[in-house]
Design brief:
alpha+beta, Rieske Iron-sulfur Protein, 2 domains, five-stranded mixed β-sheet, four-stranded antiparallel β-sheet, 10 helices, about 15% strand, binds FE2/S2 (inorganic) cluster
């Protein structure tokens, strides 16, 4: 009864984790492209700002970001395969719970209140599945063992002369099932990974089969103007130990309400190479911010109709007229404001 009652949960959680792994490897163009603002590297930098695991993220995960991304994708697929097929079911479900807990400590750590985050419910789902077991319902284990000659065929099919194989120990069975689950995850990865090149064009244009879908994320934010052509800041002047770096002209910002640039030097919490955004506040006033979302590191875009900076990942919304304080979404930390000066129609960053 418990296994039947939990079947919808098992299918949903298993399919979701399997799909999440496939998505990271094949459907999402930017996750493993470390130069992208929505890559695993960018996300890890975001987590390192807020997570209690920050020292581990900085020391281990960030230097091995690509490997970390692939490992996460494979682990998610293995959990999905195990939960759906019933192979190493409890181990797979426990793995899903551990992964979800790690996601909670990183991606969802800064979500307030906590019940807005999605990782704790997943963790509890997997805990429930691991505790309940599969109940022998829709499991591939017995079939697999018979195919490998490790278990006796059903009585009707067993020949009289065929002695039944020695029963497997639970440990050996778990090892076998876990190995098959791991091999299946790797096999799926090998099959789907080439799809990435097929689905997306190399140059990031819409030539791939998925077209704009693949460019989801802040670089092509649906929020519009703020993600305009990024401009590298150029030195403009230097005096008294501080330098001014040109980031845009007032006309460029006025055109779309905001203008993207790249932060050239360390300024407060903003690091060199971070995406920056300068926003027109009206009446000839402007404000500039580090465009990295303080929730989990995606890049915010500017919505000119709402007048807010909006993160495309989980919807954090910042008010540029109020020092980019969050007005909605899963963070209560404002964007880092960058000091600027406006002179003769030119906006410069004060570093
Ligand atoms: S990264 Fe989650 S809201 Fe921005």
């Amino acid at each position: 009864m418990a296994a039947v009652a939990l079947l919808p949960l098992r299918i949903f959680a298993g399919f979701t984790f399997l799909f999440a792994g496939v998505d990271k490897l094949a459907l999402n163009r930017s996750f493993l492209s470390l130069g992208s603002a929505t890559s695993i590297l960018a996300q890890l930098h975001g987590y390192a700002r807020v997570s209690p695991l920050a020292p581990l993220i900085t020391a281990i995960a960030i230097p091995n970001a690509w490997l970390m991304g692939v490992t996460i994708a494979l682990a998610e697929m293995a959990v999905g395969v195990g939960v759906l097929t019933g192979l190493a079911f409890r181990l797979s479900a426990a793995g899903g719970a551990v992964l979800s807990f790690l996601f909670f400590l990183t991606a969802s750590w800064d979500v307030h209140p906590y019940y807005f985050g999605q990782d704790l419910p997943y963790m509890m789902s997997f805990v429930t599945l691991a505790a309940a077991g599969d109940g022998g319902l829709y499991v591939l284990g017995p079939w697999l063992e018979r195919r490998l000659g490790l278990a006796a065929a059903p009585p009707a099919r067993r020949g009289r002369q065929s002695p039944a194989p020695t029963p497997m120990s639970p440990e050996r069975r778990l090892l076998l099932h876990a190995a098959v689950v791991g091999a299946a995850a790797v096999a799926i990865a090998i099959v789907v990974r080439p799809l990435r090149d097929l689905l997306h064009s190399d140059d990031g244009s819409t030539g791939g089969l998925l077209g704009p879908l693949g460019s989801s994320g802040p670089a092509a934010s649906t929020t519009g103007g703020g993600s305009g052509a990024a401009a590298s800041a150029a030195p403009a002047s230097s005096a008294g130990g501080s330098s001014a770096l040109a980031i845009a002209t007032a006309a460029q910002v006025a055109q779309a309400g905001a203008y993207g640039f790249q932060v050239p030097v360390q300024i407060g919490n903003a690091s060199p190479g971070d995406p920056g955004i300068v926003v027109s506040l009206g009446s000839g006033k402007f404000a500039a911010f580090d465009a990295i979302c303080t929730h989990a590191g995606c890049t915010v875009g500017y919505d000119p109709s709402a007048g807010y900076l909006i993160c495309p990942c989980h919807g954090a919304t910042y008010d540029p007229r109020n020092n980019a304080q969050p007005v909605a979404g899963p963070t209560n930390v404002p964007l880092t404001e960058l000091p600027i000066a406006v002179s003769n129609g030119e906006i410069t960053l004060r570093a």
